[in-house]
C-alpha cells in the first residue's frame, strides 16, 4: 500500500506554497523536491533548495532518503548533500548517539514532517555533532562569515528555479492562509462529504447501493 499512501501525500503537498514537488519519471517512489523558505527573517529566504527523495517499498515503516542536489554549507549537511537529522534515522532508540525513539523516524511520520524538519534545521543547526565540521566551527566562531556562505548558497540555488515558475513570497503565503480561513462552513462540509473519499471508494459504494436497490426491486416484483 506504500504507493497509495505516497500518492495521497504527494497530492496534498502539491497544494503547499513552501515546497515545489514532482515525480521523477512518474515514479511515486522517487520525488524531486524544492524547499522554499517563506520566513523573511531567514538568511535562506528567497532560495530554491532542490533535493531528491527516495522511498522504500515498505514506507512508512522505513524512512525515506533525502539528499540536496547541491550541497549546502551547513553543519548538518554532508558534502554529497545528505543530511544528518534524527527524523531520517531508523526507528527505535540509539544508545550510541543518545537519540530517543521519539526523535527518530516512526510509521506515524510523513513526508511533510520530514520537509518541515529540514526547513527548521536550516536556520537552527545542530553543531554538537556536525556532518560538516568546518561549517560548524565557522558558525560558532565567525557567524558573519558563515552567513555570507549561506547567502552564496541561496543565490546558487536560484539557478534551479524552473522556467515560468513564480517563486512564492511571504506575502503570497499569508494571503493564501487568509483565503483558507474564509471558507464557509458549507464549503468545509461539502469537502468532507465529497473530497475525503477516493474515486475507488465511491465506486465501490455505488456498486453496493445498486445491488441493494436491485434486490429490493426483485422482492417487490415477486
UniProtKB/TrEMBL annotation:
<keyword id="KW-0067">ATP-binding</keyword>
<dbReference type="Pfam" id="PF00179">
    <property type="entry name" value="UQ_con"/>
</dbReference>
<feature type="active site" description="Glycyl thioester intermediate">
    <location>
        <position position="84"/>
    </location>
</feature>
<keyword id="KW-0547">Nucleotide-binding</keyword>
<keyword id="KW-0012">Acyltransferase</keyword>
<feature type="domain" description="UBC core">
    <location>
        <begin position="1"/>
        <end position="159"/>
    </location>
</feature>
<dbReference type="InterPro" id="IPR023313">
    <property type="entry name" value="UBQ-conjugating_AS"/>
</dbReference>
<feature type="region of interest" description="Disordered">
    <location>
        <begin position="178"/>
        <end position="222"/>
    </location>
</feature>
<dbReference type="GO" id="GO:0016746">
    <property type="term" value="F:acyltransferase activity"/>
</dbReference>
<dbReference type="InterPro" id="IPR016135">
    <property type="entry name" value="UBQ-conjugating_enzyme/RWD"/>
</dbReference>
<keyword id="KW-0833">Ubl conjugation pathway</keyword>
<feature type="compositionally biased region" description="Acidic residues">
    <location>
        <begin position="188"/>
        <end position="222"/>
    </location>
</feature>
<dbReference type="InterPro" id="IPR000608">
    <property type="entry name" value="UBC"/>
</dbReference>
<protein>
    <recommendedName>
        <fullName>Ubiquitin-conjugating enzyme E2 2</fullName>
    </recommendedName>
</protein>
<keyword id="KW-0808">Transferase</keyword>
<dbReference type="GO" id="GO:0005524">
    <property type="term" value="F:ATP binding"/>
</dbReference>
<comment type="similarity">
    <text>Belongs to the ubiquitin-conjugating enzyme family.</text>
</comment>
<dbReference type="InterPro" id="IPR050113">
    <property type="entry name" value="Ub_conjugating_enzyme"/>
</dbReference>
